[in-house]
Write a structure and sequence with these properties.
Low-confidence stretches: 297-359
Number of helices: 13
Strand content: 15-25%
Order of helices and strands: EEHEHEHEHEEEHHEHEHHEHHEEEHH
GO molecular function, one term: adenosine kinase activity
GO cellular component, one term: nucleus
Enzyme class: transferase
Oligomer: single chain
EC number: 2.7.1.20
InterPro entries: Adenokinase, PfkB_dom, Ribokinase-like
Strand order of the largest sheet: 6-5-1-9-10-11-12-13-14
Mean pLDDT: 82
Number of strands: 14
């Protein structure tokens, strides 16, 4: 049997260290935070990170949307399947981030900026609510001098799939385009997450340059609506819009573009370029008592493009992580959500994970 190819999935976006703790209204009031919100930190917020580390039972988690997706993918795939690129500082937060992703089995190749601190996200959980306060830091300084390094570009040339989080359009669009052109020229899969409505609204130029190279486009209903509005698309509903986006001009004609639009507990729509039918996939609502907080799960990578099928029985390694190991203490008393985090596991049995993957 042939050996599994290593690092066939390469992910690019903005790494952050999540500093997550259960807080209270007093903590929210101290930093003028809403219970369920996501903001960029200003001067008045900068002490929250040390406050959480010093005065609360904070968990340190490798964060950033696409880095979460990369960890989720690596959790499901064979070892050494995923490599992640992004920018960090030369500080204790970067060291913690390295340790966190190492525990998750994810390989990272960070560009280190010695003059800018590592990006951090303070996460305050109150009840079912989650308030996030982000200082992007060195994540915002990623540059072409990193991806152009021979040893880094060799990883890109080796990979079969590229996954780019849309937040990186705010940082280094030329790096996105370099991966996009590599994908089209060599018939590799290029996957883009729209990430947020403001990307479609205010970063339209680099987004438009990338879309022709996209084999998969993933977004939720608000991101899709923002894309439609900023591009003057006339589709009357989300289903029709998915079909319209799938049929936008495309560079690599060997692959049909697939568009995946989610909408919470409503059906997910999947449109394929050149096909009239838009498939619907029903979502299973999560009962509130089983919801841990309002953070979204990791962005799914299209199964058709995965280096290995994720719909398989859990490996011994994955089952151990799911059921609770020394590095993954069991939290059976907590509500269980399907949030793939080997550092803060919330699937408390291998049966839970197998049941999730079978649907």
């Amino acid at each position: 049997m042939a050996a599994t190819k290593e690092y066939s999935l390469l992910v690019l976006e903005n790494p952050l260290l999540d500093i997550q703790a259960v807080g209270n209204q007093e903590l929210l009031d101290k930093y003028k935070l809403k219970a369920n919100d996501a903001i960029l930190a200003s001067e008045e917020h900068l002490s929250i990170y040390e406050d959480l580390l010093t005065n609360y039972d904070a968990k340190l988690i490798a964060g950033g949307a696409a880095q979460n997706s990369a960890r989720g993918a690596q959790y499901l795939l064979p070892p050494n399947s995923v490599v992640y690129l992004g920018g960090v500082g030369d500080d204790k937060y970067a060291a913690i981030l390295h340790d966190a992703v190492k525990a998750a089995g994810l390989r990272v190749e960070y560009r280190v900026d010695s003059k800018t601190p590592t990006g951090r996200c303070g996460v305050v959980i109150t009840g079912h609510n989650r308030s996030m306060c982000t200082e992007l830091g060195a994540a915002n300084t990623y540059a072409m001098d990193h991806i152009d390094r021979p040893e880094i570009w060799q990883l890109a040339q080796n990979a079969d799939i590229f996954y780019v989080g849309g937040y990186h359009f705010t940082v280094c669009p030329p790096a996105i385009m370099k991966l996009a052109r590599e994908a089209a020229a060599n018939d590799k899969a290029f996957v883009l997450s729209l990430s947020a409505p403001f990307i479609c609204q205010f970063f339209k130029e680099p987004l438009d340059a990338t879309v022709p190279y996209c084999d998969y486009i993933i977004g939720n209903e608000t991101e899709a609506a923002a894309f439609a509005e900023s591009h003057g698309l006339q589709s009357a509903d989300l289903k029709a819009l998915a079909r319209e986006v799938a049929n936008l001009p495309k560079e690599n004609t060997k692959r049909k573009r697939v568009v995946i639009f989610t909408q919470g507990t409503e059906p997910t729509f999947v449109a394929v370029q050149g096909e009239d039918e838009v498939k619907e996939y029903l979502s299973r609502p999560l009962r509130r008592r089983r919801s841990h907080d309002t953070n979204a799960p990791v962005t799914p990578l299209p199964a058709a493009s995965s280096p290995a099928s994720s719909r398989r029985s859990p490996s011994p390694r994955a089952s151990t992580a799911a059921s609770g190991s020394p590095s993954c203490p069991s939290r059976s008393s907590a509500p269980r959500t399907f949030h793939f985090d080997p550092l803060v596991p919330s699937i408390s049995s291998s049966a839970d994970r197998a049941n999730f993957l079978s649907h």
